[in-house]
Amino acid sequence: MLALILLLVIGSLLVYISQFNFMLVSVNLGFYTFSDIPLFYVIIASVLFGLVISYVVYLIHSISTTLTLRGKDKKIKENKDEVLELTKRVHQSELENEKLRHGEGEKPQDPNAL
Known about the structure:
About 75% of the residues lie in helices and about 10% in strands.
């Protein structure tokens, strides 16, 4: 339903533009010259060209952002792995400290030992 309403609004705008901008113009594109083109075609082509350019810029920005975030996610994963390894080393050191503190005969009981 929303698409139908949107198409009706866009169609109405195109009819309005075409009624009041029907004079024939010449368009120069570099070495090429197009003559006797209705002005509303030039207006519509300019709008469509602007939309395409803005979409391409959006896609480039989106790809750049995605690549940046992927690099950050990889760095976060590496840091989490490092934190896990350091936590294991700290736990092992605590076990060794307990073993040295209580003597060699007794083994400390740790249910959470890795």
